[in-house]
Amino acid sequence: MSYYVSVPFVPTPIEVVRKMLKLAELKPGEVLLDLGCGDGRVLVTAAKEFGARAIGIELRSDLVSRAVRNVIHEGVQDRVLVIQGNFFELKLPPADVIFMYLLTSVNERLRPKLEKEAKMGARIVSHDFEIIGWKPKIVEDFRDGGRSHRIYLYER
């Protein structure tokens, strides 16, 4: 079954990205998968600051172009891959950490795919939106620039 997902592009603030990757305990050499990678900021941060390899899947061609430009500008193209496509239609590559800033309704539709394709032991970190039916290992609330954020950490 194919899904077209319309999720608005709302960039995750860089401090929230760092907090999420720290909470997920992303380590050097691990693989991070960003579902809906937008402008690539999570991929770049994972590669530059955490020493990880990173894969992003993005549907919109304008955002794929922006992500690729950012990856090249930051000099991490040897550790980052950006794929244009619908993550519902692609087989998810094996990843140690899966990063998501989607909507609860999208997370709910994505859950069976994650259950089937995410590798055992993968840490799944979601910004602001929970995965209905899963019990988070950690839920952390914090404020950044006057805005409140909630981070959900799940373990597969």
Instruction: Quote the CATH topology.
Output: Rossmann fold
Q: Any idea how many domains?
A: 1
Please identify which CATH superfamily we are dealing with: Vaccinia Virus protein VP39
Mean pLDDT: 94
Given the helix and strand composition, which structural class is it? alpha/beta
Number of contiguous helices: 4
Class, according to the CATH hierarchy? Alpha Beta
In what range is the share of β-strand residues? 25-35%
What's the assembly state of these chains?
A: single chain
What low-confidence regions span 5 or more consecutive residues with pLDDT below 50?
A: none
**Spatial strand sequence of the major β-sheet:** 3-2-1-4-5-7-6
Specify the biggest β-sheet: 7 strands, mixed
Helix content: 25-40%
User: What is the CATH architecture term?
Assistant: 3-Layer(aba) Sandwich
- Write down the Rg: 14 Å
Could you please describe the fold and organization of this structure?
- This protein is α/β, with parallel strands linked by helices and 156 residues long.
- It has four helices and seven strands.
- It has a seven-stranded mixed β-sheet, with helices on one face.
- Strand 2 (53-58), helix 3 (61-73) and strand 3 (80-84) form a beta-alpha-beta unit.
- The radius of gyration is 14 Å and the shape is globular.
- The model has no long low-confidence stretch (mean pLDDT 94).
Keywords:
156 residues, alpha/beta, Rossmann fold, 4 helices
